Every structure is written in C-alpha cells, then in structure tokens.
Amino acid sequence: MPSQRQLLLIHSHYGSPPGLFQHAVEQGVGTIVRERDLTRAHFDAASGLITTTHIDQLGFPVWSEAVQALLARGDRWFFNGHILRELIPGLRTFVPIVKAKRADLVLTRLHPHPIFEGIEQSSFEENKGVAGFYGRGHNPMPDGAVAINGVSAANFPVDWEWTLPGGGKMFSHAGNDIGGMGSVNKSHDLIAPRLISWTLGDLG
Amino acid sequence: MSILAINPGTYYHIESLEGPRYAKYFDQLARPEELADLDLTQFNVVLVPCRTPADRLAPFADKLRAYLDQGGTIVSTGESDSQHWLPNVKFTPQPTNFWWWLTPGADLGVRVAKPEHSLFTYLTEKDCTYHLHGWFDVPEGAEVLVVNERKLPILYVDQVSTKGRMVVTSLDPFYHHGSHFMPATTRFLDGFLPWVREQLDGKAA
C-alpha cells in the first residue's frame, strides 16, 4: 500500500527543484516548498522532511523547534550537507578531510542500512572516474547515532542515523545531495526511491 | 566600513565568509533581507557570493541600482543570476563540463583577455580555469577580463551602465572553496579577495 502521507521537501536554491523532489511529488508523497515560504503549518502537516545542501543554516534555526516536534512525534529528517550551525540540539560542526587524496575518499559500509541494501558502498566513490563528490568529511555524530558509511581509512562517519527519544530518526549525509535522479552515478538512482520510503517511515 | 558581503547562509557561504582564511576581507556580513534596512553608502564594496538565490536579492534591485548610481561597487560571482537584480546584465548559461581535465592535454579554453589589468597581478589564468557556467553580453565600454573557449566574457568590469562599478563573473569560487572541493577555486579567492580589498576598496589587504 503506498503511503498517503506527505514529505516536506524544502527547496532552498534558486531554480528547478532536485529530481529526487520531483520524483516524490510524482509518487504523490511529497510537497515542495521554497525555504523562504515555509510556515510552521508545513512542518506540523509533514510526515517527514528532506533538506538539501543549499539549506540556509542561518535562517533555518527559526524552524528548529518545529523540526524537533516532527522528530518527537516519530517522523524522520533526511539531511544532506555540511552542518555549520546547531540546527537542532546535539548537532555539531562539519569536520573536513583537509587536502583529501584519493585514498582519503574510500567509502566503506560500516552498518547495514535499508537505503543501501545490496549496493556496494564503493560504487558511490567515483563519478566518471573522479572521487570526492560523495563526501569529503563528516558531521560529528550525536550521542547514540549509528555510523552507516565511513570515508577514508579512518572511517569518518560520512553517513549516520540517529534515533531520537521520541522514536523519530535523523539521517545525516555529509556531502553533496544523494539520491539525485539522473546522476552520472547510477547508484544514486537506485537509492532515490528508498530514500523517500525511509523518510516516510515505510523503510527501516 | 569598507566591504559588505551578503551571506545567504548555506554551509558553503558560511565556510567561505566566516572561515578564518577569508573573514578578514569582509568588514560586515548581512543577510540578503537585511538590505532593506542597511545604508549601503557606508560601504565601498558590496560583494554577492556565488549561488545567492536571485529571488532573495531581486526585491532590492532598485536599492542596489541607487547604490551604484552614487558611485558604489558591486561584485557578483557565479550562479547568482545577477541578470535579475543588477542593471544591464545579459547572461547566457552553457552546459558545464566537469570532466574536461580528464582528457590528457585538454584545454578548457579560459583565457585572460586583458593581462595588463591589475587583477592579474593577483591571480593567473590557471587560477580562473576550473569549469564554465556561461557568458555575458557586455555593454560597449565594459572591460572584459576573462573569456571562455569562444572568446565570450566570463568576467568583466562595467563602469558604463551606471555611475558606479560592477564586477561580474560566472565563475563560482565561493561554492567550491566552501565545499572543500577544487583547489583552483581557493587559489582564485586567494588572489581575487586581496584585489577587491586593495583595488576596489582602496585599502591594504
């Protein structure tokens, strides 16, 4: 049974929304809202939230309480990008890999996750033979989060999932938006529907 | 006050504008929406970084024009759709080839068009070469400083459309530097921002 619930898809940059957002809308499970047009009602009506690398981290804290309420009622937030502000309590500032070399950009699955099931994490390492698009550092994990994918030999947690006391979950991906439809790396196309399902709470 | 930088608040803006490498080049940071209440005449330069959403600046197009007409300087870097909020900017996007450098001996075609200009005592042609997003049709009398593979302007100075000065480029170095990606963009800012400070603001870098 497809879910009738709606994801809040926050469109932060100027121009067309991401392909992932369009896909969710076509599936009938997402509402795209320009970040500057957000209201509290958008968060209160949402069954999940996806934000992109272009989120305004100076403006978004005004919605911190609304996001915390969303998570407290058991819903989910998929976050892409580098954390530069404590958007909700527990988040800390992105740590880059300085002057990353190819060996620093190796990706490793650290814990099974339904978004990535059956897909080698190494398949995300390169686009057309160039590494570094997936992630070049990590957002430090809040207490209790689980590292899903690591970057570099040190396995810095480029991806993690955090279950909050109310049962809600946050997924942090510390790099370019993942799950982009039509990417030169086809692994992103594979995970796009799963990323939507996970954020709706229908997966994992 | 000397240089005002607009801070739209993405991670790459925060990293580029607040990070220790370049923070000294910005005397004040302001949100786009704060333009409503700012007296721009106190600044020699207003800098708009790459990927500032145009719909957050367009409401202030008249105020920016008035600032230019009293002699102000606006610097606008790439992917900010400055045609929507600066006067007489005509931009044509072009497909971005992120992979050109994978071909041995490949040449993106970026060229310095006016090597005697002061900008090129601060940065090199190589510092301007990473990828292309589009070109501008510039007014007669504008100084074209850098061109693309078809000799079309990608960085120019316009002192003819207003009584002030517009430095406009389709290069987007703040985005890539703030993403810790593409060292050429960091090299570009290493030269470009001291040039803005010394040559546009008129103070020691």
Structure notes:
The complex is a heterodimer of chains A (204) and B (205). Chain A is α/β, with parallel strands linked by helices. The longest helix of chain A is centred in the last third of the chain and has 15 residues, at 186-200. The two termini of chain A are 16 Å apart. Chain A is built from four helices and twelve strands; from the N terminus they run βαβαβαβββββββββα. In chain A, a hairpin with a 4-residue loop joins β10 and β11. Chain A has helices spanning 19-26, 40-45, 64-72, 186-200, and strands spanning 7-11, 30-34, 48-51, 76-80, 95-96, 107-109, 126-127, 130-131, 137-138, 146-151, 156-163, 169-173. In chain A, the strands form three sheets. Chain A has an eight-stranded mixed beta sheet with strand order 2-1-3-4-12-11-10-6, sandwiched between helices. The mean pLDDT of chain A is 94. Chain B is of the alpha/beta class and 205 residues long. Chain B is built from five helices and ten strands, in the order βαββααβββββββαα. Chain B has helices at residues 11-18, 54-57, 61-69, 173-178, 183-200, and strands at residues 3-6, 28-30, 45-48, 73-76, 90-93, 111-112, 134-137, 143-147, 153-158, 165-169. In chain B, the strands form two sheets. In chain B, strands 2-1-3-4-10-9-8-6 form an eight-stranded mixed beta sheet, sandwiched between helices. A two-stranded antiparallel sheet of chain B has the order 5-7. In chain B, β8 (143-147) and β9 (153-158) form a beta hairpin. The two termini of chain B are 14 Å apart. The chains are: A alpha/beta (204), B alpha/beta (205). The interface between A and B is medium-sized, with 30 and 21 residues.
Q: Evaluate the radius of gyration of chain A.
A: 16 Å
Q: Largest beta sheet of chain A, briefly?
A: 8 strands, mixed
Order of helical and strand elements of chain B: EHEEHHEEEEEEEHH
Number of strands of chain B: 10
Q: What would you call the shape of chain A?
A: globular
Low-confidence stretches of chain A: none
Which quaternary structure do these chains form? heterodimer
**β-strand amount of chain A:** 15-25%
How are strands sequenced across the largest beta sheet of chain A? 2-1-3-4-12-11-10-6
**Cα end-to-end separation of chain A:** 16 Å
**Poorly predicted runs of chain B:** none
The helicity of chain A comes to 10-25%
Q: Give the mean pLDDT of chain B.
A: 95
Q: From the alpha-carbon coordinates, what is the Rg of chain B to the nearest angstrom? A: 16 Å
Structural class of chain A: alpha/beta
Give the distance, in angstroms, between the N- and C-terminal Cα atoms of chain B: 14 Å
Largest interface (CB within 8 Å) is between: A-B, 30 and 21 residues
Mean pLDDT of chain A: 94
Number of discrete helical segments of chain B: 5
Helix segment tally of chain A: 4
Overall strand count of chain A: 12
